[in-house]
Specification:
With 531 residues, the chain is α/β, with parallel strands linked by helices. 39% of the residues lie in helices and 15% in strands. Its cofactor is [4Fe-4S] cluster; FMN.
């Protein structure tokens, strides 16, 4: 059987601030040709001043420009703004405004680019909303050092501090969250702002009713606030001159995967998807495109040829705009093998707070591995059953997004799936073109690209390791462990080390491979006798 492997070099993680390309007239990236970062003076020179408006005027503006959240869910911003205003008036309290500028997904950098290069455009929109609502504080959540530094500089340039200041009455502070998929979820950001861990709380609460410190909270991502600032300056008629009628304006896209150069692209809505991919140097022959990021959906090559960059068009072809990430794959790699690598990573990103996430996602990734390993129709049916069992039952949306990604791969690559289920595989290796992070030395204290490995001459199938770290290890049908082919995430390093120490046969170890995946990886032996 042809089991996808990864003999070639993998994509390294995307840079914090990729190169930026603009299609047509820029809105969000205006002035990027003048400076690497627009300080307050340059920002005002490029965009001009911004006059304050009332809450109802701002909500009407957001509705008139059809502003939807750009973080993935696409919720109407005007409805969110009115919900916060109503809750604040009903309770007689001042709300909080939160900018979610953290991107824990390896395939997304658009918000990071905005905050690093145009922080004041983001703050314009956030402060416009804060003043309209009479908010008491402004919070910006970030994940990266570069983003945090840019926000701190922008606060200083505007005279914003964490103390109440005379002319605004708004306190501003930064909240740092880990670079994890689940940490970017709205409830996780609010939990972090309240001093807790940056994880979903396990219960569904509306931020508009009770968010930071129990106050009504307006939370949106960085691009949403930047779009609000652009719309306030241009007005609805001028804003609507760009893009398609029902989704006016521009969109920010992160393009990576099988491309010559990862890019962040600002383009009018409705631009052909193929044109955007060619800007980044995608191959002319594609197998498919992952749209919306790792919680998005795959579309096949035919759909990619006909689709446009808009929510409606991508949805028509089975895709999603989502978090604005586009990842094409060429004909030299196994698309299901690529999906398997991401499925293992998504499983390891679980918050570990509910069964569908902690156990269901590793089981789903293992099920796809069984399919690609020649498990046949029974393995495919088992995979679909596991995936459907995890959907809609999690404490947050991570299981739903992960299952959507996995099932869309089965639907988009039917020929490859049939080759794996009915024959000896598709015949392609898995080259690893979809970017995944390695362990972060700053957070974990361990070198990059550490993976679990088993000495099969010693393994006796006790199965203790799968109990300790089910996100990375599961037991196969023969009772022996099957390991996820991904680097050990920083937050799972302690449990991976515990699994190594608990192995009674001393068969489990952690291997440290170089960033270039040399053929003779160094092995860092752990002292299994230390408790």
């Amino acid at each position: 059987m042809n089991v996808p492997t990864a003999p070639g070099p993998r994509n390294s993680p995307l840079p914090d601030v990729p190169s930026v390309v603009t299609v047509g007239l820029p809105h969000l990236t205006k002035g990027f040709d003048l400076a690497a970062r627009l300080d307050l003076g340059t920002h005002l020179h490029v965009h001009g001043p911004l006059a304050p408006v009332t809450g109802e005027q701002l909500a009407s503006l957001a509705a008139d420009i059809s502003l939807l959240g750009r973080g993935g869910a696409g919720f109407p911003f005007a409805r969110k703004l009115r919900a916060v205003a109503d809750a604040a008036a009903r309770r007689g309290t001042r709300p909080v405004v939160v900018v979610n500028a953290g991107e824990g997904e390896p395939a997304c950098r658009k918000d990071t680019v905005l905050v690093n290069r145009a922080p004041h455009l983001v703050l314009d929109g956030a402060l416009l909303a804060a003043e309209a609502l009479g908010a008491r504080s402004l919070i910006v959540a970030v994940t990266r050092d570069s983003t945090e530094a840019s926000v701190r500089d922008a606060f200083a340039e505007r005279g914003l501090t964490d103390r109440r200041i005379r002319n605004r009455g708004i306190r501003a502070r930064i909240v740092r969250t880990p670079e994890r998929m689940v940490s970017g979820e709205a409830s996780a950001v609010i939990r972090a702002a309240n001093g807790g861990p940056a994880l979903p709380p396990g219960r569904r609460e509306r931020a508009a009713e009770s968010g930071v410190d129990g106050a009504p909270t307006l939370l949106s991502n960085a691009e949403t606030y930047a779009q609000l600032a652009v719309g306030a300056r241009l007005g609805p008629p001028r804003y609507a001159r760009t893009g398609v009628a029902d989704e006016p304006g521009t969109v920010l896209l992160t393009v990576s995967g099988a491309v010559a150069l990862p890019l962040v692209v600002e383009a009018p809505s409705g631009v052909p998807l193929g044109y955007v991919l060619r800007l980044a140097g995608a191959p002319p022959l594609l197998q498919g495109v992952l749209t919306g990021g790792y919680h998005g959906s795959w579309i096949d090559a035919y759909a990619a040829h006909d689709a446009a960059v808009s929510r409606a068009s991508l949805a028509f072809f089975g895709g999603a705009l989502g978090a604005g990430a586009l990842l094409p794959v060429g004909t030299d790699t196994c698309p299901l093998g690529e999906s398997l690598r991401v499925a293992h990573w998504l499983a390891a990103e679980t918050a570990g707070q509910c069964g569908p996430c902690k156990l269901g996602l590793p089981a789903a990734a293992g099920g796809l591995s069984d399919v690609l390993g020649g498990g046949g129709q029974a393995a495919l049916e088992s995979l679909r059953e596991i995936a459907q069992g995890a959907y809609g039952r999690g404490a947050c949306k991570h299981p739903d997004g992960s299952v959507r990604f996995l099932l869309s791969a089965l639907n988009a690559f039917t020929d490859d799936l049939a080759a794996h289920v009915l024959g000896g595989g598709c015949g392609r290796p898995t080259t690893g073109v979809l970017p995944l992070p390695g362990a972060s030395p700053r957070e974990s204290g361990v070198p990059n690209e550490e993976k679990l490995a088993v000495d099969w001459t010693l393994c006796q199938g006790h199965g203790l390791c799968a109990d300790v770290v089910p996100e990375l290890i599961r037991l196969g049908h023969d009772g022996f462990p099957t390991l996820a082919d991904v680097s050990v995430p920083a937050h799972l390093v302690p449990r991976a080390q515990r699994a190594v120490r608990r192995c009674p046969a001393l068969a489990l170890r952690i291997e440290q491979t170089s960033a270039r995946h040399t053929t003779a990886p160094a092995v860092r032996a752990l002292d299994r006798r230390r408790g």
